[in-house]
Design goal:
Elements lengths: L1 E2 L7 E8 L7 H10 L4 H7 L7 E4 L9 E8 L6 H14 L5 E5 L14 H18 L6 E6 L14
Parallel strand pairs: 1-6, 2-4, 2-5, 5-6
Antiparallel strand pairs: 3-4
């Protein structure tokens, strides 16, 4: 885990949670800022969006980010953070030419989430699912990077599947 601008971390794809009707907060705002509507057009095309749905948005032109595709996972916060992150990792692993993915620490906003009380709990839950994923599917993804938009004052280590 590290911190910084997630759009500037080199990866084959970003995994982004998205609400069914609000696409421009947090990571989605950062994606829009560097690529305008390029990736969010896939959300419009796939509407109506339902909880747990995966939308893979390809790069269709140039943008200011360092990532290829965006894998949106619709999150109405009815599933555990563990389950929703695993849906995103599974979707990434099924895509050809995706070996390195980046996602942000999620469900850290004012509402927190179904099973997360603060950003430290979110970070811990995400680390748990990523460690499980790396242990059970070590060949699917080479690198899973988790980015927070500001330092947490913690010692952070990259979680890299074998």
């Amino acid at each position: 885990m590290g911190y910084g601008d997630i759009t500037q971390v080199k990866s084959d794809a970003l995994i982004a949670l998205v609400k069914p009707r609000d696409w421009f907060d947090g990571i989605n705002g950062a994606i829009h800022a560097c690529a305008e509507g390029m990736f969010h057009a896939a959300l419009r095309a796939a509407s109506p969006l339902v909880d747990g749905m995966v939308i893979v948005a390809p790069t269709t032109g140039r943008h200011a980010g360092q990532f290829g595709k965006v894998i949106f996972v619709v999150d109405e916060q009815t599933r555990s953070l563990y389950e929703i992150v695993k849906i995103g990792l599974d979707a990434a692993a099924e895509q050809p030419n995706i070996r390195n993915v980046t996602l942000s620490v999620v469900r850290t906003g004012i509402l927190g989430g179904l099973d997360v009380r603060d950003h430290y709990a979110a970070q811990e839950k995400m680390a748990t699912v990523i460690r499980w994923y790396a242990a059970h599917y070590p060949r699917n993804l080479n690198r899973i990077s988790v980015i927070w938009d500001r330092p947490l004052g913690l010692v952070v280590r990259p979680i890299k599947p074998a």
